[in-house]
Amino acid sequence: MRSGGRTRETALAILCTFLLHGKTFSFLASPTLFSNTLISRQNHRHAPLCATDPDVQALLDAEQEQGIVNRAAFEETLLIESSGSRDTLTESTETERKEATKLIKKSLKEGTRGRGGGGGFGGKEESDAPSSIFFNPSRDKDGFGAIVKHKGVARINSVLSIETATSILNYVNEEKIRSEAAIAEGKVKPLSRFTNVLLKQNRWDLLLPMEESDEVMKGLYELLGDGDSAKRRGSVGSVIESTVGKDAELYELACLISDPGSERQVIHPDIAHIDSDGNVIPLVTCFVALQDIDVSMGPSEFLPETNTAAHHKRLNNHAIRDELLSEVSSKISLLNVGDCSTFDATTLHAGGGNKSNTRRCLFYFTFRNLSLDDPRTTNNPGSIRPEVKERRLSLVEIRKVLKKWKAQIST
User: Global pTM?
Assistant: First the structure.
């Protein structure tokens, strides 16, 4: 907690306002006053916009980051002491997946939400159903899509081979060095290789290419398949098809890098809750561990079943958000190499602080449901290279690219 009193806080607030998710937010440096209402994973990556003296800006950045660090530590205490459970995110059993699927199929017929809320799914169960659906059980090969829809997050083990995960990890470490050198030499713009981050110390969001990296392509092929048959759609590919559709657009492709000393994030959704009825998942993200992750490395912590307007409203209300965190259950994502956590981007979560001596890398991608408006903003553009973004690739199109790549390397 810094000294200086309300006068200095007010002066700092007047000097700069931060634009997050299209709303103006005045930053007050005291962490007890700091609201994470509009913070998201992307907002943690994106530096705030403020036209002011560089020295003042540096002070504001330092004040803001310290406020985030203090708030995150307080939130972790609330979760540890929560009346809800706090344990490891595990892969759902086949029985649990079948039960979730059964519940959602029943909801489809009755026109109600999977967790019992209002509103209908409006989807079809036929294999050729339109991709702009609320949920398509027939495309959910292993039932993990039903878990994402029902719980907001699912763990899927061994989606990537250890060999491929290791090759991507080596590529990421080398590409980070190459990208930093290219930026220093003025060959590329910083935002074409990295997304700006808050809590900058020891944390990077490295944007990845597609065809120019065989390592990335092999990873995508294993995770998404080529779509030729149900067996070749991949468990993650099936989650995407069932929750956001075959025509879902690639929204992000990157690697989160957290070195020893990086700080814990505040609890946040990746985007604000868009669909007022809560029927449609706007974005689905898949985090894949490129190495084993233990508790000291700052694993992601998810709050299951918080992908609702009601939970967002409570988190956004400064007066009652601590009450929410004092009663929710949470799941810590202690993934082994090649395992993934895939989640609805509106599910509340946070990355932990890395207290180990090991770098933590999460290879990830996000797909966007085209039945909802694009949630990108200036300060929250999604983590994707400009040249990849411009292609506006759908899951179907990516699988065609992967199939062509696979044929080329096989000859």
Answer: 0.84
